Design the sequence.
C-alpha cells in the first residue's frame, strides 16, 4: 500500500487545507500533518516490504527522492513564508501538486503521465491568478499532445523512424511540461506566487522532469537514444544561454528571477541529455538545488519584487550572490564539476560551451541577491536554511545522489 | 476491410472535434465534446469496458459544460474560415497518418479517432482565449489519451482509462467562467 498512501495522504491534506481555509491554524495543522505523513511514507518506500502495491504502482528511486525533496521544500516555504503570504493557499496548492507529482512518479508509462499532467496543469491553471486559464494551459496542454504522439509512435511499428520521432515528441513534451524555452509561458509579475509560472517551473517541474525521464528513457530504445540525447543537450544549451543572458539583461527583477530558473534548467537538460551517470547525477543535483535553494529564495525575494521592501546589498546578500553564482563550497560548484566531467566524457567541445554559459552566469547572481533585501524574522531564518541546503548539496552531494540511487 | 460502424464512428468523432474548434459558445462546445466522445467510444468496441467508461465520461463532461460560459451555439462565427480549413486538413491528415502510416496501436479507426482528438484538442487549446473551450479541449485530449492507453493494452491500462475518464469529468466540473481574483 506504500505508493498508494504516498499519493493519497497529500491529496487528503490538500482537500482538508482548502476546506478549512477560513480557520488557517486548523488548516495548516491538518494539511501539515498529512503532508508530513505522506513524506514519511515516501521515505519509507525505500524499504522493499512497503513497495508492494495492490494497484501495481512503483516509483523509481530518483523520482521518489526528488519527491521527498519537494515535500521538504514545501515544508520550508510554508513554515517560513514571508508575513504577507497566504500560507494556507501555499500549503493546499503544494499538497495538491505533491499528489500530482506522486501520480506522475507512479504512472506506468508516458500516456499515464499525460493524463496526470493534464489534471495537474488544469488544477494549477484554475488557481486565482492574473493570466487567463487558456493562456496558462497552453504549454502543459502541448505537453499532453506531445506525450500522446510519443506514446502512439512507440507502438506504431518496428521502423527506426518511429523510434526517433517518438524520442523527439517525448523530449519536447518534457520541455513543454516544465515550461521552458521554446514553450515559455507569459509572466505576470503581480500574479500570486502559487499560480505563477515560476512556481510551476521551480516547484512542480523538477520532480516532474525526473519522474518523466525515469518513465520515458527506458522505453526509447537504441534507435531513439541519439535523438533523445542530442535534443536534450541542444535544448539545455539553448535554455542556459537564454536564461543567463535574459537574467542579466531583463528589465524587471521578477523576469530576471524567472530567467535564472531557465539557466538552472539548461544545466539539468544538458546533464540528462548526456546519458552518462555523471550527467544524470548533475541534472538531479541541479533540480534538487532549484527546489531547496532557488525556489525558496525567490519566494523570500517577493516582498522586494512587489516593492513592499527595499533591495539591499549587505554581507548576507554577497554570500547569497556567491551561492547563486555557483561558487565553492555551495551547491553550484559540485554540480558544475560533475557536469563538465560528463561533458568531457561525451564530447569535449560541449564542456567549452557549458563553461562559457557558466561564466556569463556570474552576471545575474548578485543582481538577484540584491532582491532578497535585508531579510528579518521568518525570512531571515529561511534564507539561512536555504544557504545551509546549498552548502550541504555542495559539500556532500554523494549523500543526495545515494538517496536517489545514483 | 473497415466496417460501416467504424467509418461512421470516425466521421462522428471528426464532426465532434470540428464543432469543438468551430464553436465559441456553450452549446456548440458541448455538442462537439459529446459527438467526439460518442465517436471515440464507438471505435473502441473491441474493448467494451474502456468504450463505456470513456463514452459516459465524455458525455457527462459535455453535459457539465452546458452549465456556464457564453450562451447559445456560437458555431462558425464570422472569421472562422482558417479554423474550418484547420478542421478539414486535420481530418485528412489524421485519416492518412492513422490508417496508412502508423501500424499500431489498435485498429486504424481507433488510431484516427485518437489522432483527431489530440490534434483538434491541442489546436483549439493553443488558439482559444475562452475558458470553457480550453477546458473542453483538455477533456477531449484526456479522453484520447485514455483511448490510446486502452489500445496499447499496457499493464496499467484499466487504471489509466479510469483516470482519464475521471479527469474528463473533473475538467467538466471546473467552472467555465474566469474568476477575476488577483492577489499578492
Sequence:
Amino acid at each position: 500500500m506504500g505508493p498508494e498512501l504516498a499519493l493519497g495522504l497529500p491529496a487528503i491534506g490538500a482537500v482538508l487545507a482548502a476546506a478549512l481555509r477560513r480557520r488557517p491554524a486548523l488548516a495548516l495543522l491538518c494539511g501539515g500533518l498529512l503532508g508530513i505523513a505522506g513524506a514519511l511514507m515516501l521515505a519509507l518506500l525505500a524499504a522493499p516490504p512497503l513497495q508492494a502495491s495492490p494497484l501495481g504502482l512503483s516509483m523509481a528511486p530518483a523520482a521518489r527522492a526528488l519527491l521527498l525533496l519537494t515535500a521538504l521544500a514545501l515544508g520550508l516555504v510554508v513554515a517560513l513564508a514571508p508575513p504577507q503570504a497566504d500560507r494556507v493557499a501555499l500549503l493546499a496548492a503544494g499538497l495538491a501538486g505533491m499528489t500530482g507529482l506522486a501520480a506522475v512518479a507512479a504512472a506506468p508509462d508516458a500516456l499515464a503521465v499525460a493524463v496526470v499532467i493534464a489534471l495537474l496543469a488544469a488544477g494549477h491553471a484554475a488557481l486565482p491568478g492574473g493570466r487567463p486559464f487558456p493562456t496558462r494551459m497552453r504549454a502543459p496542454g502541448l505537453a499532453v499532445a506531445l506525450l500522446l504522439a510519443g506514446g502512439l509512435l512507440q507502438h506504431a511499428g518496428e521502423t527506426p523512424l518511429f523510434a526517433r520521432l517518438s524520442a523527439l515528441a517525448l523530449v519536447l513534451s518534457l520541455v513543454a511540461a516544465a515550461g521552458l524555452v521554446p514553450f515559455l509561458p507569459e509572466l505576470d509579475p503581480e500574479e500570486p506566487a502559487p499560480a505563477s509560472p515560476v512556481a510551476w517551473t521551480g516547484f512542480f517541474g523538477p520532480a516532474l522532469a525526473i519522474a518523466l525521464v525515469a518513465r520515458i528513457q527506458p522505453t526509447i530504445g537504441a534507435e531513439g537514444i541519439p535523438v533523445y540525447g542530442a535534443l536534450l543537450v541542444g535544448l539545455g544549451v539553448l535554455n542556459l544561454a537564454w536564461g543567463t543572458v535574459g537574467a542579466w539583461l531583463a528589465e524587471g527583477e521578477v523576469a530576471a528571477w524567472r530567467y535564472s530558473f531557465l539557466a538552472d534548467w539548461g544545466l539539468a537538460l544538458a546533464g540528462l541529455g548526456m546519458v552518462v551517470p555523471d550527467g544524470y547525477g548533475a541534472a538531479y543535483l541541479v533540480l534538487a538545488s532549484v527546489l531547496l535553494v532557488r525556489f525558496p529564495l525567490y519566494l523570500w525575494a517577493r516582498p522586494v519584487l512587489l516593492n513592499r521592501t527595499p533591495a539591499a546589498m549587505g554581507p548576507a546578500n554577497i554570500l547569497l550572490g556567491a551561492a547563486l553564482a555557483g561558487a565553492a563550497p555551495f551547491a553550484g560548484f559540485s554540480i558544475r564539476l560533475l557536469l563538465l566531467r560528463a561533458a568531457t566524457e561525451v564530447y569535449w567541445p560541449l564542456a567549452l560551451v557549458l563553461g562559457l554559459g557558466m561564466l556569463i552566469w556570474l552576471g545575474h547572481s548578485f543582481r538577484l541577491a540584491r532582491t532578497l533585501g535585508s531579510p528579518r524574522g521568518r525570512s531571515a531564518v529561511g534564507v539561512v536554511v536555504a544557504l545551509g541546503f546549498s552548502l550541504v548539496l555542495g559539500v556532500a552531494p554523494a549523500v543526495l545522489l545515494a538517496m536517489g540511487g545514483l | 476491410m473497415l466496417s460501416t460502424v467504424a467509418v461512421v464512428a470516425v466521421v462522428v468523432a471528426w464532426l465532434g472535434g470540428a464543432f469543438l474548434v468551430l464553436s465559441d459558445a456553450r452549446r456548440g462546445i458541448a455538442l462537439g465534446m459529446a459527438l467526439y466522445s460518442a465517436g471515440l467510444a464507438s471505435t473502441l468496441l473491441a474493448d467494451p469496458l474502456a468504450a463505456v467508461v470513456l463514452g459516459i465520461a465524455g458525455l457527462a463532461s459535455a453535459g457539465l459544460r452546458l452549465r456556464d460560459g457564453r450562451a447559445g451555439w456560437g458555431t462558425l462565427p464570422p472569421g472562422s474560415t482558417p479554423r474550418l480549413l484547420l478542421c478539414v486538413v486535420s481530418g485528412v491528415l489524421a485519416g492518412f497518418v492513422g490508417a496508412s502510416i502508423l501500424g499500431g496501436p489498435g485498429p486504424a479507426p481507433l488510431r484516427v479517432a485518437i489522432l483527431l482528438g489530440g490534434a483538434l484538442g491541442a489546436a483549439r487549446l493553443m488558439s482559444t482565449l475562452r475558458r470553457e473551450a480550453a477546458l473542453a479541449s483538455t477533456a477531449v485530449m484526456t479522453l484520447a489519451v485514455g483511448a490510446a492507453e486502452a489500445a496499447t493494452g499496457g499493464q496499467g491500462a484499466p487504471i489509466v482509462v479510469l483516470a482519464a475518464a475521471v479527469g474528463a469529468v473533473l475538467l467538466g466540473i471546473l467552472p467555465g467562467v474566469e474568476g477575476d481574483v488577483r492577489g499578492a
Summary: The mean pLDDT of chain A is 92. The interface with chain B takes residues 55-56, 84, 86, 107-109, 111-112, 114-116, 118-119, 122, 126, 128-130, 132-135, 137-138, 141-142, 144-145, 147-149, 151-153, 155-157, 190-192, 302, 306 of chain A (CB under 8 Å).
